[in-house]
Amino acid sequence: MNGSEVLRLERIVKEFPGVKALDNVTFDLQPGEVHVLLGENGAGKSTLMKVLVGVYHPEAGHIFLKGKEVRMENPRQAQERGIAIIYQEFNLVPSLTVAQNIYLGREPRTKIGLVDQRRLKSEARRVLDFFKIDIDVNAPVYTLGVAQQQMVEVAKALSLEADILVMDEPTATLSEHEIGQLFATIQTLKAHGVSIIYISHRLQEIKIIGDRVTVLRDGRTVGTRSVAETELETLIQMMVGREIVKKRMRKSCTALPDEALRVTNLNRGEILRDINLTVRQGEIVGLAGLVGSGRTELARAIYGIDRIDSGEIYVMGEKIRHPSPQQCIRHEMGFLPENRKEDGLALILPLKDNIIQASLRKLFPSGILNLGRERDIANRYVRELAMAAPDVTRMAKFLSGGTQQKVVLAKWLCTQSRMLIFDEPTRGIDVGAKEEIHSLMNNLAGKGVGILMISSELPEILTLSDRIYVMREGAIVQELEAPATTQEEIIGFAAGERATA
Amino acid sequence: MTAENNSQGRNQTLPSFFRRIPGNIYAIALLLFVFRFTSPEFLNLSNLLNIVQQGSILTIVSIGSFLAIVSHGIDLSLGAIVGLAGVVAALAMNAGLGIGPACLLALLAGAIFGAVNGFVIARTYINPFIVTLGMMGIGEGLALVLAKGSTVSAGNPVFKLLGGGNLGLLPVAALISICCYLIFRFVLKRTALGTHIYAIGGNEEAAILSGINAHRIKLVVYSFNGLLAGLAGIVMASRLGAANPSQGIGIEFDGIAAAVVGGASLAGGRGSIWGTLGGAVIIAILRNGLNMAGLPMALQMVILGLIIMAIVTIDSLRN
User: Beta strands A220-226 and A60-65: pairing type?
Assistant: First the structure.
């Protein structure tokens, strides 16, 4: 046992009815380190953190804070002892300013009990300056980007004098540039002796930011490693407990000669400039590019959500005259948006209703439903896509990210789509489910479905695509054959470091 | 795996059976029990029929309130349409039109009024609360103008049967409201339109990306609302034998309360029309029972408000 450690969780056991969520988990934290907590969904990461801050009380085990054993009764106690958590969903009030948010509920007062606006601002500015966070304290939070809002959360935690900071998937919603900002801030925090527990799915960033990594699987500690001395492949193996073969999933392109999608000379203001692309039936085409390069905007334009200035869109060889989601569906094209929860699913509706949502007119032309048939169809997709759902009436919000994505996919399979646009198909999905989604996409292509896939994860683009378009500043700057290209080449074109051919 | 789930579903234990009974039924039973003691005549057949008759109009209106709420909207103009449609029907009959054509004209007026709501809401993205609030003012004003500020008589004895007549023991008004309930229950549960209404209430963006024409659905929903409120207006004018332009004022709030008491979520996408029917019955019983108990009007309003809040609180705790 190291005497200098700030935190030690020892042999923690936490049981829920029927499940042992944490089974003898041990975890320690050194001053000024970034300790990554890695594991698939359901591995016990969140449960462990909830034990740490006193939301859950463990059945067995000990928590040592700076060498002294403590009991965490509730989150408030954890806060008083200098432990802060930044959740994925921020707890900020959008209409209030940065300073007001940082000191929400503990505003400095004047002698007669009013809020001392001057001190409020100067204190907030002091905290931000100290950690070199460049945000205007007078700005209302709704005017900030996601990354800046996260910085406000960080500042709020630090203003509580926290020296242990837990960050739950902090980069899930950030762009590359914003991730850079976040990492710079983390470095500053480390330099000031703040210890960070960093929960993430993204293996690449662990290499950049982590000092040590502890892998959890099925509620058990698999092991703790130094990041610098461990290969990513080893970490993946530790996470999933089996070897993931990292190779191209597409053995050979099985594409038919017929086009599934053709876009010619599409323009939309400065956002999309003279886009030309094709996707053949049975082909998976990757759309790579940095965040902000116009990939999602292109998908939305093709699918008729946003108006275009000029250009033509052909699906299955037929021109779409007035692009709209309805027209696209009529032409057998479907769209799986990037934000499943906001745009893809109705979370409070049952799984069944989400699956058949786009096909009702097709399944029941009279407009009158057959509830038994509805259930059978939904059940068939639950089986075919191996969804982890107890039954088809389960509300979508109770499903895991991977299963939710399968529900959205089932919706488009149900319409018999022959052309699918995937926007970030595996964002926020754990490794195992990710593989399943990939093999589903692969099978679809094998059946002749054309797929256009937007992804920020280059390994995903490389393992899955037959061809790749690279976008930069609203234009397609390069077309690449997937087997022949590399991550470095794609990034080169996307960032504009390479001259385009 | 499916077979397993089914057998689990069927094998219900007794407590879970009780939990599956909607809370409304308990609330109704409790109210009947309590009012039995506050006023001895409460459970008399004539009074129960009276409740049914009064409740019929609210039931018709509350279906409209529910449709708006489940599509993640709200309709404040229903009461105004009730007044307007009653006046239109009465004026048309006084001008020599037959009962049928006069009623059709009133229904048409209601439907058009509702369609305007739906059109503005779908096309402008102005919040339904504001749109229907504006239309509430317009409707009330229009009804007053048409009626020249006073009550229009509608004394045709055949017309009076709609709201006041009985078919055997059952009031005709109740029959009308039961028909409306069955029709809209079918629409919501068994048609693509119904599923689409829940879909845009559940997540409008996802529904649009699924190719659902949200504009059309909203237009249809608010047109249905207008039609229902028009029907309620006719029944009300018939029961009173005269159309008062202000006859519907406030009923839109009872309708909303009925839907929410019945479990509808103001966030849209959730709730059942069966629950709304229960909610309407509860409010009708409350109004009648408090009245029969001889409480002053002001106190009745306070108690009604408290009980509605209590029911909704209990219901949200149960879930």
Answer: unpaired
Q: How would CATH label the architecture of A258-332+417-501? A: 3-Layer(aba) Sandwich (3.40)
Which residues, listed in sequence order, are joined to residue A315 by a DSSP beta bridge?
Answer: A261, A318
User: Which tens digits make up the pLDDT trace of B138-182?
Assistant: 999 999 999 998 999 988 888 988 888 888 888 999 999 999 999
Q: Is B179 helix (H, G, I), strand (E, B) or coil?
A: helix
Percent of chain A with pLDDT over 90: 43
Cα pseudo-dihedral B78, B79, B81, B83, rounded to 10: 170
pLDDT at A341: 82
Q: Quick one: pLDDT at residue B2?
A: 36
Residue B305 lies in a domain: yes
Nearest to A373 by CA among A387, A389, A356, A390: A356
In this predicted structure, what is the pLDDT of residue A484?
A: 84
- Any chain A CB within 8 A of the CB of B34? no
Residue found by looking up tokens 């037929």 in the block: A318
Which residue segment(s) compose the domain that B164 sits in?
39-318
Nearest CA to A464 out of A489, A430, A437, A427 is that of A437
Using DSSP bridges, classify how beta strands A318-319 and A310-315 pair: parallel, antiparallel or unpaired. antiparallel
Give the CA distances from residue A436 to residues A327, A406, A422, A451, A463, in Å, rounded to whole numbers and listed in that order.
Answer: 30, 9, 15, 16, 14
| pLDDT at residue A28 greater than cutoff 90 | yes
Q: Say how far apart CA A360 and CA A369 lie, in whole Å.
A: 8
Count of the separate structural domains present in chain B: 1
> In the beta sheet, which residues pair with residue A226?
A212
Q: Helix axis angle, B45-70 relative to B251-261, nearest 10°?
A: 80
- Which CATH number fits the domain that encloses residue B45? 1.10.3470
Query: Closest chain B residue to A396 measured between Cα atoms?
Result: B202
Q: Taking CA A229 as the corner, what is the angle to CA A223 and CA A230, rounded to the nearest 5 degrees?
A: 55
Contact A222, A216 (CB under 8 A): yes
Burial A150-164 (b: 16+ CB within 10 A, else e): bbbbbbbbbbeebbb
Confidence of residue A43 (pLDDT cuts 50, 70, 90): confident
8 Å CB contact of B202 and A349: yes
Interface residue ranges in chain A relative to chain B, Cβ cutoff 8 Å: 303, 305, 325-326, 328-330, 335, 337, 342-349, 353-354, 356-358, 360-361, 364, 367-369, 371, 379, 390-391, 411
Q: Please report whether residue B8 resides in a domain.
A: no
Domain boundaries in chain A?
7-240, 258-332+417-501, 346-416
Structure-block tokens of residue B194: 């119904």
Q: What is the pLDDT of residues A124-173, one digit of tens each?
A: 999 888 877 888 999 998 888 877 888 888 888 888 888 999 998 888 77
pTM metric for this prediction: 0.73
Which residue on chain B is closest to A417 by alpha carbon? B210
The token pair that represents B215 in the structure block:
């504009």
Whether the per-residue pLDDT at A374 is higher than 50: the answer is yes
Nearest residue on chain B to A331, alpha-carbon basis: B211
Best interface-test mutation with B: which of A331, A335, A357, A392 has the largest number of B CBs within 10 A?
A357
Identify whether B155 is part of a domain. yes
Distance from CA of B185 to the nearest CA of A (A): 12
Kindly report, residue by residue over A326-369, the tens digit of the pLDDT: 999 999 999 999 888 888 899 889 999 999 999 988 889 998 99
Superfamily of domain A7-240: P-loop containing nucleotide triphosphate hydrolases (3.40.50.300)
**Model ipTM value:** 0.76
Rounded to the nearest 5°, which phi and psi values hold at A273?
-125, 115
SS3 A176: helix
Contact B80, B143 (CB under 8 A): yes
More confident residue, A146 or B190: B190
To which residue do tokens 């959500």 refer? A305
Band (pLDDT 50/70/90 cuts) for residue A107 is confident
Amino acid at B221: V
